Amino acid sequence: MARIAWITDSTSCITQEEAKELGIHIIPVSVIMEDKIYKDGVDITPDEFYAKLETVSELPKTSQPTVGEFSDFYEVLKHSYDCGIAIHVSEKFSGTINGSRLGAEMADFPVHIVDSKILSESMKQLLLKGKKLESEGLEAQEIAAMLRETADHVKGYVCIGSLEQLRKGGRLSGASFLVGNLLQIKPILTFDDGSLVPFEKIRTLKKAESRVLALFEEAAESKGAYGVSVVYSGSSEKAEDWLHLLREKYPHITFNLGQLSPAIGVHVGAGTLGLLWFEEGV
């Protein structure tokens, strides 16, 4: 069997310790904050980032890995592996996928690219599924095709902590939905074929959060939700409450908890809370 290198970027929110344990190679996104450049998950942890975010006078920025960085990354990997499977943040959010593809070509290392069409913990779930398929003896090309199919059935609904950061970062499609007095609405956003788009306007945060939970409950009961993740940025208190609630109500479903990485936090701010999952039979 071919030796497969499992690759992702730091928007997957996998820690360095988890990556080592799982046998996953992470290329970090850069976070620029107060004229300093930090490698996401390497030079700065989520807790450190969100603490700094409260004090900065200017919104941070991100920079995707360059083609040259990807090429160097793959030059190292090709000495130990026959090919790679790279699962990256949605192509609608970032040019990371294209950089990965071009870097692999420069390094002459065969890499099967998978657009997760989402971010965060759902990318980790795809990686874990892929490694399971590998353990069952499937070839890399077949595994990648199956993961792309799975990514087509990813769902997610989020209440964003900072709409202003999201707007300035240009990561929100259909932003005209939000025109008006933003202070009077708490919009729920969803993922549509890799894009983050407005879903519903809700008058209070409490009602918005209840609506997200209701959307998941509908999917869990009718569409076989799995690989479910509660994601948050900043304080984990409310996310942990959701996790406890969901585990009690759906003991047959595995739920995961993940803090959004600095590379995502730059765009959504602290206080973001959401649910991500995959659906069966759709």
What can you tell me about this protein's structure?
- With 282 residues, the protein is of the alpha/beta class.
- Helices cover 39% and strands 24% of the residues.
- The chain has 10 helices and 13 strands.
- The protein has helices at residues 16-22, 46-53, 67-77, 96-107, 121-135, 140-151, 163-169, 205-222, 237-249, 262-268, and strands at 4-9, 24-27, 30-33, 36-39, 61-63, 83-88, 111-115, 154-159, 188-192, 195-200, 226-232, 255-259, 273-278.
- The strands form 3 sheets. It has a 6-stranded mixed beta sheet, with helices on both faces. The chain has a 4-stranded parallel beta sheet with strand order 2-1-6-7, with helices on both faces. The protein has a 3-stranded antiparallel beta sheet with strand order 4-3-5, with helices on one face.
- Helix 1 links the parallel strand 1 (4-9) and strand 2.
Question: How are the elements arranged and paired?
Answer:
Layout: E1 4-9, H1 16-22, E2 24-27, E3 30-33, E4 36-39, H2 46-53, E5 61-63, H3 67-77, E6 83-88, H4 96-107, E7 111-115, H5 121-135, H6 140-151, E8 154-159, H7 163-169, E9 188-192, E10 195-200, H8 205-222, E11 226-232, H9 237-249, E12 255-259, H10 262-268, E13 273-278
Parallel strand pairs: 1-2, 1-6, 6-7, 11-12
Antiparallel strand pairs: 3-4, 3-5, 8-9, 8-13, 9-10, 11-13
